[in-house]
Design a protein that fits this description.
Layout lengths: L1 E6 L11 E7 L7 E7 L5 E7 L9 E7 L2 E8 L3 E8 L4 E7 L3 E7 L6 E7 L5 E7 L5 E6 L27
Antiparallel strand pairs: 1-2, 2-3, 3-4, 5-6, 6-7, 7-8, 9-10, 10-11, 11-12
């Protein structure tokens, strides 16, 4: 089982619990997946939503985030299909599956606009970008390409891409 996490709160102090939202999926595609909520203080988990047919091919997850009570997950089954899916955590309902023009690798809530996600995506030529995904129009736009010098080599794993809070670099 693979687990990709999206935190819906940052741990402020050791006394405060953090609830993580995780996607548990098989290594097989297609296969059903489950979105769980895990409470770090109590150690309990709750299954929120099963992602089953006709969306069982969403099992190849790269990343996810929680913004405004919604879970946004990156799915990838290239070259056939890739994009971002949405689940409402209030109703525990699957909402949308959106094919995107670029393959997303990392997403987080846009700190400047609550109608957008920001993250890292790549095109079919393998060029990487900082990009935004508009939650209203369901379109992605490029902010800036990654440098293409010899130091910007991608080894094929999404885990090396991460976001850091400039005000608190060790907090994330």
């Amino acid at each position: 089982m693979q687990a990709h996490q999206a935190t819906n709160s940052t741990k402020q102090a050791t006394k405060q619990a953090t609830k993580l939202v995780l996607t548990g999926s098989s290594t097989l595609i297609p296969e059903s997946s489950t979105i769980y909520q895990f409470d770090t203080e109590s150690g309990t988990q709750e299954a929120l939503l099963d992602v089953a047919a006709p969306n069982e091919d969403l099992a190849a997850f790269s990343d996810a985030c929680v913004c405004g009570g919604k879970y946004y997950g990156v799915f990838a089954n290239p070259p056939m299909d890739f994009g971002i899916f949405t689940a409402d955590l209030g109703s525990n309902q699957f909402e949308a599956r959106t094919h995107t023009s670029n393959l997303w690798h990392k997403v987080t809530c846009d700190p400047t606009d609550d109608t957008k996600l920001v993250g890292v995506s790549s095109d079919t030529a393998g060029v990487f970008y900082i990009a935004k995904f508009d939650l209203v129009t369901l379109e992605d736009t490029t902010v800036a390409p990654f440098p293409t010098d010899s130091k910007a080599v991608w080894n094929g794993y999404d885990a090396q891409l991460q976001f850091d809070d400039p005000a608190r670099p060790s907090a994330l």
